[in-house]
Amino acid sequence: MTGSLALKGSDTPLDHCDLDIRVRYVECDPMGYLHHARYFEFFELGRTELLRLAGHSYHDMEQQGHFLVVARAQCKFIKPARYDDVLTLTTRIERVTSARIDHSYELKRNGTLLCTGRTTLASVDGEGKLACIPDYLIPLPK
Amino acid sequence: MTGSLALKGSDTPLDHCDLDIRVRYVECDPMGYLHHARYFEFFELGRTELLRLAGHSYHDMEQQGHFLVVARAQCKFIKPARYDDVLTLTTRIERVTSARIDHSYELKRNGTLLCTGRTTLASVDGEGKLACIPDYLIPLPK
Amino acid sequence: MTGSLALKGSDTPLDHCDLDIRVRYVECDPMGYLHHARYFEFFELGRTELLRLAGHSYHDMEQQGHFLVVARAQCKFIKPARYDDVLTLTTRIERVTSARIDHSYELKRNGTLLCTGRTTLASVDGEGKLACIPDYLIPLPK
Amino acid sequence: MTGSLALKGSDTPLDHCDLDIRVRYVECDPMGYLHHARYFEFFELGRTELLRLAGHSYHDMEQQGHFLVVARAQCKFIKPARYDDVLTLTTRIERVTSARIDHSYELKRNGTLLCTGRTTLASVDGEGKLACIPDYLIPLPK
Q: Given D25, D41, D84, which is nearest B24 (Cβ)?
């Protein structure tokens, strides 16, 4: 299936978004670098924002009993980010199936690539059992 | 009311506990110091441990619909802690009322005082409304 | 001394700033609330932003060997914040002395007060010893 | 090269270690699960502990100008961990070259596998440039 969300109330596909994130002091380690675990928190911000742009809210999804849990995550760290850097995170939908969504990520500072990442989300219900993702996340067949 | 918990199945009062905590790399900031917000996370570990020593579990309390939320917190930072330091946190119950518990904290490294803190917890139900604390947290009158 | 910064290259006093912060998923606890320790991280964001508005950068201050460490922090939690809430943090300078700065904080959601806080920062050098704060942080006498 | 450290002052190879970690409240998200980014923090604890068992300290390494930065990290999440769970993390050295160390990880609760992970560390100097890892981390040829 295609790697995109339909914009709410529209057939326009939405397959990525850019989000600016400023690195916080508390997120940096004694080397002065953004701690490597924090990148995965940033990826989560990118996913939330992409969903929001498509007209949905992960907060509402949870209220409706749909949860997305991270089944796989990976990151390749190329150059370090530092305190107060303004970074641009590009989040892209790579693949959507009935119960899984793959995203890829690129984090840049002024056009310089700092890291690339990838996650697989699984759709689960309130008990943590695999469940179909909400219809509105499944793009229409082309 | 006195500032102590009764040990489960006993009248022996338990008013404090010591907990050793090793400072993690991710908890330290670019100055190389334990970030000041982390001390409040450590205080939470101390409260959990004190409850456990008294024979109870905060995890079970939540399952039973009793929640403790932090209503006030304060800390005076005296000397910095650093990565890999082994610290000793002393958590003390200062006061228990029907819906509130006050704790005080001292964090030391090899006997040197690094910080003192104080919190007030409020007892709430699953909807966040003030509720009486469980009976077993209220010490018997002397 | 007055509780304000002079705007860089100007005598206009700057005594507070407002900053919008969206609550992240990772910042919320199993009750679904913004974890209480995170408020102190938000206060740090407010201080950084106030400094930036005055034309300075905490990042540059550190590069020049001036560090501000938290000597005291306190918070009164009034109502909980939740995932995806957009909060407005008002950071105010209450008092500046040769080596200390007091800030106060108010965090609101749509005008509703969620918490109030207060911190005292101490100015230290690279070895952690008390040092005068940079001249540009000391407001001109009226 | 073999995937093991020599025990300090000995030729005994040390290729893995087990570390018990109790899940903290602040580490869990609104689903009640250990947040996925935290697993990478746990992996860091495992690496530190393995180094300590071999008679070394990452803290001392940094003091001597040797830094290890994470170049790649990945994790497969199998079952969720929850607040207050006591988990056992097995950290294993898979491969050591002149400037890189690969580790693998298994996180279990009472023998049940919760996740597997893998990281590649790069050895850098204080300026972040690739550098040889300290001799004592390179196992003797067999």
A: D41
User: 């990452």: which residue's tokens?
Assistant: D58
D78 falls within a domain: yes
Look at residue D142 and tell me if it is in a domain: no
Tally of domains in chain C = 1
What is the nearest CA distance from A41 to chain C, expressed in angstroms?
Answer: 7
Contact A48, D84 (CB under 8 A): no
Q: What is the pLDDT of residues B92-139, one digit of tens each?
A: 999 999 999 999 999 999 999 999 999 999 999 988 899 998 887 776
Q: Chain A residue closest to B37 (CA)?
A: A26
Q: What is the Cα Rg of chain B in Å?
A: 16
List Cβ neighbours of B17 (8 Å cut-off, separation of 6 or more): B46, B49, B50, B53, B90, B91
For residue C85, what is the domain's CATH number?
Answer: 3.10.129.10
Residue A142 lies in a domain: no
Residue B28 inside a domain? The answer is yes
Chain C interface test: which of A25, A35, A48, A49 (most C C-beta within 10 Å) = A25
Cα distances from C22 to residues A52, A89, C25, in angstroms, run 13, 17, 10
User: pTM for this one?
Assistant: 0.93
- Answer whether A12 touches C (CB < 8 Å): no
Q: Show the domain range for B88.
A: 5-136
Phi, psi angles (nearest 5°) of residue A29 = -105, 180
Task: Find chain D residues with C-beta within 8 A of C29's C-beta.
Answer: 25-26, 28-30
Q: Which ipTM was obtained for this model?
A: 0.91
Q: Please name the member of B26, B45, B82 whose beta carbon is closest to the beta carbon of D24.
A: B45
Residues 6+ apart with CB under 8 A from B81: B23, B33, B34, B87, B107, B109, B114
Q: Which residues of C, range 79-138, sit inside 8 Å of A by Cβ? A: 82-84
Residue D73 with chain A: CB contacts under 8 Å: 36, 74-75, 77
